Amino acid sequence: MDGTDVINQALASIIDTELVAKQLEQAFKDEILANASSEQVSDEEVMADVYQRVLLSPAVESLLTQEYELSVQMQDLVDEQEREWQYLTQRQTEELCYAVDQLTEVEVNEISVRHCEERQIFESGWESRLVNVQETQKLHFREWLLGMAEIVETGGQLPIRPEDDFEQVASDPENLDIPSVFRLEESFTIQLGAQMKQSHNLRLISADVLDLCRLPLTSRNDPQRLQMALSLYSSNQSGLVLLVDDRLSAYTGMEKEFLRICRRGAELHFPRADLQLENARNTFSANAFKWRQQISNRRINELESNGGQPKTKTPRLGDMYVSRHSNLAQVHVVFHLVSDDSVRSNEINSRHPVLLGLRHILRTAVVSDITTLTIPLLLVHELSEEMTVPWCLRRAELVFKCVKGFMMETASYGAGVDSRGSGSSPTLQFLLPRDAADEVFHALAAMLPGVFRVSNPLVLRSDAVR
To answer: Which of 23, 139, 423, 444 has the most CB atoms around it within 10 Å of its CB?
Structure first.
């Protein structure tokens, strides 16, 4: 039966047109489903959209208050843990000192074993308690956010703020004068590019790197918190380069203090910081080794000499891994860059692994909508005795020149224009340790325009043409 016969039968009412229409509809749906993308909107994307809608509604003040109260609850709990840990440590120290002076060696060993068990019980108990509170907070915030979004959509009555809160805002001087975490700072605007010039904002700042992460909970009306919330799911995020060692299995030094800061605030959007780093520990070795196999010309030799397993279970110098945060003061994304004591040497050059790692970070920031990036100018977070003024100037000049080259390289990826077409200029912050001398800061402020210099355009006047 050809198409003409079908049409004739339809006109003669021999064919059930309603049945044919349903069959065509079902066939059309099957065809669409067979060829449509299988990607589904993730739960994280849904919550991000809901959060943005509530944040840009009249309920924004209630949202910030909710986040503030949960952060205060978390901070109080961590303070309690630290007080109990200090008490436990002091008690055990006194017991051990008494045992060393008065008891036998066997009894001292027994006391030491008991102390270790007490510390393990204390740590595991508190860790479980903190995790339970964090998960409960996230679930509570999610339910509150969905409920508030429904109120906003339906035009319902928003929660009324108590009058005493208004009085506190008006009388609290901290709401009017918010101190800067930067001890010294100076800003520059440059243009890079041979033909198409792109504007970049440069800032030279002197501060403790962790001060950019500490979120002071002095007021629920802190404008810094509002700014960070508005940019959390935007194309204008802030990043920080944090220098760490290669020990993923143990948190020490800067990484340990960083995790302590993360734990003091309520993380309501992303996995806990320790879980993110644990995931990096579990996946970093295999992924990094697989990538190195793909770019290495000695793949077969590496497999044979290593039995098909990674040569090392720790990151190499210059490797980096990323963590996301919503509970830090001025940072959304942290690039953990693996470094070691070799950066303290005077002999490093532009091919040093840490500088190459910095190159990869700049490239990642450009393609990931991170428009503000803070990097350690001297490749260290703390100064030592051998880091004299000449050493600081030489190191800063090297980093300035390398970063300028990296910025010109990444310009081809679209640096200077965000993905939404707003054309906002990216900002790069060069961070000096807080204890750097003022003369070093001013010398570097004078050096920066010379390194990032651009040739002045030639302006032709009408009288000169004649």
So the answer is: 444
pLDDT at 362 over 90: yes
Cα 6 to Cα 15: distance, rounded to the nearest angstrom: 8
Q: How many CA atoms, within 13 angstroms, populate the side-chain half-sphere of residue 165?
A: 9
Is beta strand 427-432 parallel, antiparallel or unpaired with respect to 370-376?
A: parallel
Interhelix angle 389-410/353-367, nearest 10 degrees: 40
Q: What angle do CA 383, 378, 440 make, to 5 degrees?
A: 70
Distance CA(361)–CA(367), nearest Å, equals 10
DSSP string, 28-62: HHHHHHHHS------HHHHHHHHHHHHHTSTTHHH
pLDDT bracket for residue 431 (50, 70, 90): very high
Helix (H) or strand (E) holding 237: strand 237-244
CA angle (417 as vertex; 44, 212 as ends), nearest 5: 60
- Cβ neighbours for 247, distance < 8 A, ≥ 6 positions apart: 314
Report the C-alpha gap between 168 and 110 in whole angstroms: 55
Nearest to 425 by CA among 212, 193, 248: 193
8 Å CB contact between 413 and 369: no
pLDDT in tens, 46-96: 888 999 999 998 888 999 999 999 999 999 999 999 999 999 999 999 999
Cite the DSSP H helix spans in 250-373: 253-263, 273-295, 299-306, 353-367
Closest to 407 (Cα-Cα) out of 173, 131, 192: 192
Please, which residues have CB within 8 angstroms of residue 87's CB and are 6 or more apart in sequence? none
**Which residue, among 442, 441, 425, has the nearest Cα to 190 in the 3D structure?**
425
Q: What angle do CA 190, 193, 187 make, to 5 degrees?
A: 10
What is d(CA 10, CA 19) in angstroms, rounded to the nearest whole number? 12
Please report the pLDDT score of residue 315 as a whole number. Answer: 76
Question: Measuring CA to CA, how many Å separate 329 from each of 185, 241, 372?
Answer: 18, 15, 14
- The H or E element containing residue 243 is strand 237-244
